[in-house]
Amino acid sequence: MTNLRLRPITRDEHLAFVAARPSASHMQVPSWGAVKPDWRAESLGWFEEEGGQPVGVGLVLFRPVPKLKKYLAYLPEGPVIDWYDVDLDRWLDPMLAYLKSRGAFTVKMGPPVVVRRWSADAVKAAIADPDAHRLRDAEATSYEPRAVEIAERLRGAGWRQAEAGGEEGFAAGQPRYVFQVPFAGRSLEDVHRGLNQQWRRNIKKAEKAGVTVARGGYEELPAFYELYAETAERDRFIPRPLPYFQRMWTALTAEDPDRMRLYLAHHDGEVLAAATMLTVGDHVWYSYGASTARRREVQPNNAMQWRMMTDAHELGASVYDFRGITDTLEESNHLLGLLRFKAGAGGEAVEYLGEWDFPLNRVLHKALELYMARRP
Question: What family does this chain come from, according to its entry (predicted)?
């Protein structure tokens, strides 16, 4: 096989490559760099021949180490390369060499490779099984054997699988477990039939109660944020500041007007729930959700999600991605309700290969690990 060359590419080259593919992560498009002002972003391209078109791309974010000219280099849910190439080294070796030359002491990446899937029924059965404490304890509905080979190749090349951080299966970086509803080849009626009885009942109840769902714009972000801050306090997580969402909106919609959407569920003149939706190619993500504890009986969340799913289907999405879920099935886990909610939409729980680190400077990498372990 030919050796691949890697070099920085322009924003237009990067976007053209992504546009020619079915999809890529929303964290691997050029605009994502503008969402992260504390990081310096750079677009990279892999080439088989000089002057040709890129055969792979990656958005790398550089985070500086205070007082040192060294960086953590991070490719969230990327890079966008041929992960099933039998010679992965020809992709990753030039990337490591380039990032080392740019002052990186550690490289972190998230291969967009699926390991296994559990149907909604399998998830429901796992939750009810007293012997299943984590999702991985339950028999998967399908497996991707090549994912195991990729993991073995990465380990053999010196990559280390990052420890899951955060709470109950939510990684410190990006989630390893997500919930997705496949749309490809399915009519909207098929998708609706895939919802469980509770979801269908709640959608109908919201409609009868007069809940309306509308798209919002930049000026509605403060209304979204008010609910988001309430949700953070209720669900015990640290909220991002409002300017983060304003930057996200400005950067993503400048790149593509449909890259980010905002939805708000109203009832009697009050916003009860709100959510952001992201689109790259035929992959649609439910990104951030927020709701108030008031008037939950009118089911604004189900109404809003169904409107988002309907719009995603109209856009030609092949998958509606609910993003992160807990892999812990204990009843005491406060995130279990969120898993039940997402599983009620039909679809499947999906496990990805997770995030991987390559220490280019072992001393600094160890210091980073200690710092991350001590964070509150």
Answer: Belongs to the FemABX family.
Cβ atoms 122, 343 nearer than 8 A: no
Record the tokens describing residue 355, joined without a space: 């995030």
Q: Which amino acid is at 369?
A: E
Q: Which fold has domain 5-110+355-374?
A: Aminopeptidase (3.40.630)
Q: How far apart are the first and last CA of the chain?
A: 47
In DSSP terms, 263 is beta-bridged to: 215, 275
- The CATH code of domain 114-143+165-352 reads 3.40.630.30
The verdict on pTM exceeding 0.70 is yes
Residue 300 contacts residue 211 (beta carbons within 8 Å) = yes
Distance in angstroms (rounded) separating the CA atoms of residues 29 and 32: 6
Residue-wise DSSP of 88-140: THHHHHHHHHHHHHTTEEEEEE----EEEEEEHHHHHHHHH-TT--BGGGSPP
Residues 83 and 90: their CA atoms lie apart, in Å, by 11
